[in-house]
Amino acid sequence: MLHERIGFIGAGQMATALAAGLLDAGHCSPDRLLASDPSDTARQRFSEATKAAATPDNAQVAAQSDVLVLAVKPPKIPAVAAELRGQLRADRLLVSIAAGVSIESLAQRFGPELAIIRAMPNGPCLVRRGSSAYAVGPRATTTHAALVERLLGALGSARQVEEGLLDAVTALASSGPAFVYVMIETMSDAGVGLGLPRAVATEMAAEAVRGAAEMVLGVGQHPAVLKDRVASPAGTTIAGLCALESNGFRAALWSAIDAAARRANQLGGHVADQR
To answer: Which of 46, 108, 127, 134 is the most exposed place for a label (fewest CB within 10 A)?
Structure first.
């Protein structure tokens, strides 16, 4: 059980998922959680999901929390920092899940004395199948890192990386599920085109993706090896793979991840320019 009080600036889907995950894992009780958000709807949903309190007052959350999680969009960081700068104790741990916003930028805005960890969870955290990564600032300790790994681990997997790799993490793990959703949708459409009912086609497409992912994670072999196992000579799979190659599937997916990483970097630069 965590003894720290966890505060969330922003009570949207990711903050709610993090809080609910901590509760489900038995890491804390609702009275150790508090969130702020200007939206009545967001606060209501957070409280309904977690039985924890929510307020419109960011300063109240900052004052009452040992760990402060910044769960707002990057463009909102300057306003939140201007409101809270000087109100955060030096022993406070600041955890940011704002895409692209660097630890250096956060320290300049919120205070260089703070321990800061930058984290990137992803959408599947909502169903406890998240893939998260975090980077540790110069004033954060191994104890802080272990705490953040425990927080993120309640929602799936968590790993520490160098900060310079977080834009890649954002593109691959955070944006990546959206690319997979498009693939599932397209596979479902193709199934419907071949005569399957929509519900059956969507379920089977999603199950194919889930099963393939579990094979990669569970068997421990390279995806290319697993692909070759089902690509029989002159069979159906190799015919489909040939069609994917002919239509630039690999290049398109690579370009999508590269574009997402570049956009994450741009978002961080935009926030830095607002100093």
So the answer is: 127
Q: What is the pTM of this model?
A: 0.89
146 Cβ contact partners less than 8 Å away, ≥ 6 residues apart? none
- How would you write the pLDDT of the chain (275 residues) with one tens digit per residue? 778 899 999 999 999 999 998 998 898 999 999 999 999 999 999 999 999 999 999 999 999 999 999 999 999 999 999 999 888 888 889 999 998 899 999 999 999 899 999 999 998 988 889 999 999 999 999 999 999 999 899 889 999 999 999 999 999 999 999 999 999 999 999 999 999 999 999 999 999 999 999 999 999 899 999 999 999 999 999 999 999 999 999 999 999 999 999 998 888 765 555 55
The SS3 call for residue 249 is: helix
- Give the residue from 8, 51, 46 showing the smallest Cα distance to 29: 51
The encoded tokens of residue 108 equal 């300049």
**Euclidean distance between CA atoms 266 and 79, whole angstroms:** 19
For residues 118 and 103, the answer to whether their CB atoms sit within 8 Å is: yes
Contact 118, 137 (CB under 8 A): yes
